[in-house]
Amino acid sequence: MLSFHSTMFTNLQAQQHPPSFASGPALNRQLESLPKLRMEWKISTFDYPTGAPANQHGNHTTSVDLYHRDPIMAIQSLLDRPTLREHMDFIPRKVWTDEDQSTRVYNEIMTGEWAWRTQVRAPSLSADCLLMSVLQETLPIGGSLIPVLLGSDKTHLTNFAGDKQAWPLYLSIGNIKSDVRNKPTWRAWILLAYVPIIKFSHPKSAVRTALQGRLFHKSLKMILKPLVSAGTVGVRLTDSFGQIRLSFPRVAAYLADLPEQNLINLASMNQNPSMLAGHECLGAGIKHPPRTSKWILSTVQKICQAVDPNDIPAYIKVAAEYGMSGVHKPFWEDLPGYETELCLSPDILHGLHRFWRDHILNWVLELVASDEVDRRLQALQPVVGMRHFSKGIDSLTQWTGREDRELQRVLLATVAGSPKICPVTMSCLRAFHDFLYLAQYTSQDDTTVQYLANALNRFHALKDIFIRNGARRGKKNIIQHFNIPKLANLHLFANHIVQMGSSPQFSTEVTETYHQEMAKKAFEATNKKDYHVQMVQHVERSDSVSLMNELLSYVKDLAVDQAVYHDSAGQSELFQQALRETVEQQRAQRKKMEKQPMIPGQVDRKGAVGTTWLATQAHSRVSSLTHVASSYGLPDLEEKLNIYARQEDTRPAEWGKVNVWHNFHVKIPSVQDGDKSAEARTVQAQPPSVRLPYGCNDFVLIQQGDTESSGITGELLLSLFNRYILTFILKVIELCKFALFSGSQVELHMP
Fold first, then answer.
1. Which partner from 110, 460, 661, 730 sits 20 to 30 angstroms from 104, CA to CA?
2. What count of other Cβ atoms lies within 10 Å of the Cβ of residue 633?
3. What is the DSSP letter of 84?
4. What pLDDT band is residue 675 in, cutting at 50, 70 and 90?
5. All structural domains of the chain with their residue ranges
């Protein structure tokens, strides 16, 4: 019935507002008329060996089609967008927490040491002689640094049948503020290319892997070639303010998981891609020397002198002795300013959350049986804003980063008190979780970076407990070492934060969210034959639609000015019609928002605003305050309200019917960065009922006076209350004195 009514409604809309197209080709022509990004897709074709043995008959090379865009034009497209105008940052700077400049702050890329020493001419310590101060080669005066961010990840296009894959390569720039750049709705990452994937015919898997690795580097070298000259002598680009900048695009970060990081830095699979740590040293509690580009290129030269790189099996054998892969020509060898030890960013998604799931959680489950963990998780009281594992975790068939985060919030409290969780084990688990949460700070300073290092040192000092209690176990026996590549990568976080800014902006979770639109949906729109051409066409049309929506969003706030319509006169009829409809929708939305019950927030000392809001409709309307007081068990409710009303000089003659809300929503300044808002939370005040005999009421923390923020124990509490709050948080009125902040949530019982 619902489908039938929906169809009737759609047909009625079509009769009143018939579409401007009558067929699929006509719709495509309309899409082609939309504004386009200033970059076109190119196809580069070249021959590449298939890996077939020399004595085998048939073709030994195959034709490879590389679909890619110009990275310079991709950067220009991002700089062009007017909606990103207020979120651009071109100034490297040093930010301090105090006037004495004793503690430095690191959040955006431009606040890190890398941007400062790349842009600014300043003395620094030489890598060859730590006692000698040298003057670094930096950008010319007036030049603008454009930190180029790359990201790629091979993904499957089919779920249950077939083996079709795509390897998207994405590009963004570090000038865009991280909180905007990392939101998929802003589309601040551009699909730059599809890296070709070939089925090689060589019988040895190691040779096939080397051939695919060499193809990857050859392809990226072709794609990123324009960055070589642009990063050296500069290129003139126009920003959204109309200013022409002498820009120097330098690759600052490459977002990739561990196998792809090994591929990029030419490391074999059992090595760490960013440090010179052998496989037997991966579990050490110290940081090893970095795997620099100079070391990699000199090692490749040694291997090439010992064996012909075209003899791939022989090259792989010699390269393995140096901990190197079968690639001999990295794509980054000519890129100016590329630093292999910094560009491979520590990955929170795979390097932290996946490490936690594959190792920390497994060790815990070896000590506490999974059915016992499930029983404890099921016994937890459900809390709004937190996942309740009502069926435990043993029945989960698909894990994602969301499940990891939700379980991390309650794991320590869940297993505490278990017979095999001794104090040393708990201390070790706490140390890792301290590191886990500290690494996810969106703004760091020298103090929190030291907290991070201290937490990692505590974990390494205590981690042997998992061997002694038998938790570090393989399929048969206890594993007597911690030689895990991802564990060694944890040493990189502290230095990378100082050099490049906070870690969350470099998580591969950012690029993986684009797979759905740029790879999977694009593939679904094809006929599954020669699909790369069709995928490119789909992405191009999708970009045009997104750009159109963005332009409409940009002008809708200016729609009251008739000049907006005048400026759009040269645009297509489709654009003008959409603009008129968007203006009407915007005005209707504003009228609707005016009716939304809002509670003004208090401006935080750092400038971020706390916002509190209610649902449009109250959950209930009761006849008297006596009924409300009886339902919530608040005998002195009317007395308290009268006291508050007299203070505000708003006391009514008598209390009549009142609207009652059982919850409200609050968005407060972030603990890590007071200039940004944290995730919106819901505060519950459910009255007692048959289903909830004691109601469901969230605990509220109150700040009185200034409170120092310090690590994960810091407090940042928001004072809220005015006369509009009287009817929706009745359960906590007598405790909070009308100053509210949603903190840790526990059940609150009141007489």
1. 460
2. 15
3. G
4. low
5. 30-280+288-346+506-543, 348-489, 557-592, 598-736
